[in-house]
Amino acid sequence: MEIERPDGRSPNQLRPLACSRSILHRAHGSATWSQGDTKVVAAVYGPKAGTRKNENPEKASFEVVWKPKTGQIGKAEREYEMILKRTLESICIRSIYPNTTTSVIVQACFSLNPSFPPFSFLLVVHDDGALLPCAINAACAALVDAGIPLRHLAVAICCSVADNGYIFLDPNKQEEEKMKAFSYLVFPNLNVSVLPERSTQKGGEPTAHGIITSVTHGAMSVDDYLHCLERGRAVSARLSEFLRKNIEPKSSSESSKAG
Amino acid sequence: MGFPDASKDLSSEMEVDAFRRLFPLKYFERHLAEAIRPDGRPLGKARDTTVVLGAVASANGSALVKIGSTTMLTAIKMEVMTPSLESPDEGCIAIDFHMPPICSPIVRPGRPAEAAPVISKQLSDTISSSGSIDLKELSLVTGKAAWMAYLDVYCLDADGALFDAALLSAVAALSHLQIPAVAMNDDGKIVLLSEDDGQKKAQEPVNKEKRNLTLRSIPFSLTCILHKNYILVDPTAEEESIMETVVTIALDTSGQLVSLYKPGGPVLAFTSAIQDCVALTRQRVKELKGILEEANSTMQVE
After folding, report:
1. How far apart are CA A146 and CA A151, in angstroms?
2. How far, in Å, are A226, B114, B181, B217 from residue A83 at the CA level?
């Protein structure tokens, strides 16, 4: 039985993706990522000398600032900052620049409705489904743009579970509110052409199947969650292809901005 | 980074405490190889848990929970408020988590701890995701008056697994909560019914007597640390600071997964590790359910 989604997508179909890098000239690295109407800008400054007070000076540390679209900074923003910080720490090679701080600033932004005339200053506020996965993807692209050494890329996806157990990928805000539960999953993405032997974990599962981060909302059965994981893994390959294509250097004569 | 393995040479010559401070990871790994932890627990065992209900006499519901050394105190205060227009027949619950400086040497007065807003939001999300409370029960007069429950969780001692203890104490306080008896007086305002018989007959009791909140399936959680191939259950603060990958799983009493929270961390979680953690959580849910029921029945006897 085919379930009809409000915007006509199939259960496995993602919203249109768009990614651009080096959009901010003063930042050492920057990127935007949009999935449908959710758009996030990420900027990276660093590595800068010195670590903050409670951080381990033997490793590079990260500082994340999350700016909401509107309103004051509240608990949700602090939680997103913490999740983003720990996710980025796990993908970076922290031993290369000890005693430094890299700042990642993430801003959720309005997306311009393309059907409005270009000279109108009206910004249309649309749905915000899957804000955290967008931010993780944008931050990862911005880190690559800044040249921070990474162990592997992180791709984030949102999977939602409907009451009848069907799994829908990349829900928008309306769908998120109607569904029984949804989960944000972040998978690592390795460039498998480099070292095929190393990409297998001891238990026989390839490294790309592990999850870096998982945040769930709503109650679902454990089996539903494991199905979400499978679907998420299947689509993470597509997402990472898109990410890699968009973050390739545009020309060989690009100079470093940190210099 | 580039240091040779200095610990091997020194381990036989050094005192245990010095080794623990200088090479904490090696110290723990030596224990893990023998399937035990420095405090003597096997890897899959949680610390001793106690729940005491009614710790705060002036609150409508309260609980004091200790998991090992981690101590959480929850108190619930009820207030009457006007319900919102979108849901005129529902009350409201506001959950807040505080980490006062007493709980840990890392928390300084004036600067709120980094973990506090995160755990606060996690708690509200978990309790609302589990659907254990029907907000319609908190309604008094549709459209005009409803209960607002302020649930404050205070951390008195932060020794790891803060979310587990906070969730357990919040849930215990909710199970102990007694909604006060109220009546509507002539002005249309809700007033508390007093214990003595000085009541005017014109007052209509809206809520005749104190009643408990009915909780549907109750969520319980378990925090595990993933390190290489080991899964350590219910970590202490020292273990959390050394091995950074933490997974918190919340299951409710009907077996539904309420939350699987893994905020990054160097170790990736594979399906086998997740299934092991879920199995450990199921065991823990049974334990905690028993402890909570015992605490409730002790209260009723008094």
Report:
1. 15
2. 21, 12, 43, 28
Would you kindly state where each structural domain of chain A is located, as residue ranges?
17-112+125-191+212-247
Could you tell me what percentage of chain B is helix, strand and coil, using 3-state DSSP and rounding each to the nearest 5? 30, 30, 40
pLDDT by residue, tens only, chain B of 302 residues: 444 455 555 656 778 888 888 889 999 999 999 989 998 899 989 999 999 999 998 999 999 999 999 999 999 999 988 888 888 888 889 999 999 999 998 888 888 888 899 999 999 999 988 888 888 888 888 888 888 999 999 999 999 899 999 999 999 999 999 888 877 777 767 777 654 333 444 445 555 566 778 888 899 999 999 998 899 999 999 999 898 899 999 999 888 999 999 998 888 888 899 999 999 999 999 999 999 999 988 887 76
Strands of A22-138 (E only): list them: 29-35, 38-49, 61-67, 100-109
**Chain mean position to CA A234:** 17
In A65-118, alpha helices (H)? 75-91
Q: What is the DSSP string of B143-155?
A: TTEEEEEEEEEEE
* 3-class secondary-structure state, position B224: strand
Say how far apart CA A242 and CA A246 lie, in whole Å.
Answer: 6
**pLDDT for A123:** 43
Residue B96, class by beta-carbon neighbours within 10 Å (0-12 exposed, 13-18 middle, 19+ buried)?
middle
End-to-end CA distance of chain B: 60
- The verdict on a CB contact (< 8 Å) between A221 and B256 is yes
User: Using an 8 Å Cβ cutoff, are A215 and A183 in contact?
Assistant: yes
Residue B67 C-alpha, separation from nearest chain A C-alpha, in angstroms:
24
- Given a cut of 70, whether residue A203 has pLDDT beyond it is no
Cis peptide before B235 (omega within 30 of 0): no
pTM for this prediction: 0.88
Residues of A with CB under 8 A from a CB of B: 54, 58, 74-76, 78-79, 82-83, 85-90, 95, 98, 181, 183, 186, 188, 201-203, 205, 207, 209-222, 224-226, 229
Among the four given CATH numbers 3.30.230.70, 3.90.45.10, 2.60.40.1760, 1.20.1250.20, the one describing domain A17-112+125-191+212-247:
3.30.230.70
